[in-house]
Amino acid sequence: MNESFDRRRFLFLAPALGLASFSRAARPSAIPLATDLRADGQVSKARKIPILVLFSLPGCPYCEIVRRSHLVPMLRDPQRAGLAVFRQIDIDGEHAVLDFTGRRTTHEAISRAHGMRSAPVVAFWDGEGKPVAENLAGMLLPDFYSAYLESALETARARLASPR
User: Fold this and answer.
1) Spatial separation of the C-alpha atoms in residues 70 and 80, rounded to whole Å
2) pTM here?
3) Over 80: is that where the pLDDT of 25 sits?
């Protein structure tokens, strides 16, 4: 059996566990899919802001909560949207993407390269794809998730703002 998240088993068990299923088509597109990390890295370097990446899976209800309840509102807020470059990577996705060196690859390969095996994970990268804050893995405590997200984002911004 594949060590990565078994999406088919999850989607089969989700209704039995009382979890809503979210199809690929129903997912809001407010967080752009990563297509050119090299260009995102250039923006990150020029503006000294992190790249905030949501690693997700279609059909993952926790990914949907993080996306809809936390990241999309942040992205839609004009005062907060400029705090980071927001991107989404589907862990098992075959979507084409240019990596930080300009090499063509896929979302799945980027996920593997960064050790992503479960979802949701919110990562904070510099303009070269190196971590600048601790990943937020899972849903953590729902009541405190916004505070964890804000703290990690501030840590990432502070690291990028200070001279290295």
Assistant:
1) 12
2) 0.81
3) no
Other C-beta atoms lying within 10 Å of the C-beta of residue 6? 13
Tell me the C-alpha distance between 72 and 66, whole Å: 9
Residues ≥6 apart with Cβ < 8 Å to 18: none
CB-based contact 49:82 (threshold 8 Å): yes
Alpha carbons 43 and 98: distance in angstroms, whole number: 15
Three-class SS of residue 136?
A: strand
CA distances from 32 to 35, 90, 147, 162 (A): 8, 11, 23, 28
Structural domains of the chain in order of their starting residue, each with its CATH number: 7-161 (3.40.30.10)
Nearest to 133 by CA among 81, 63, 73, 83: 83
Backbone conformation region of residue 98, classed left if phi is above 0, alpha if psi is from -120 to 50, else beta = beta
pLDDT per position as a tens digit, 38-77: 999 999 999 999 999 999 999 999 999 999 999 999 999 9
Strand bridging mode 104-106 / 136-137? unpaired
Sequential DSSP letters for 97-131: EE-TTS-EEEHHHHHHHTT--SS-EEEEE-TTS-B
Tens-place pLDDT, residues 70-79:
999 999 999 9
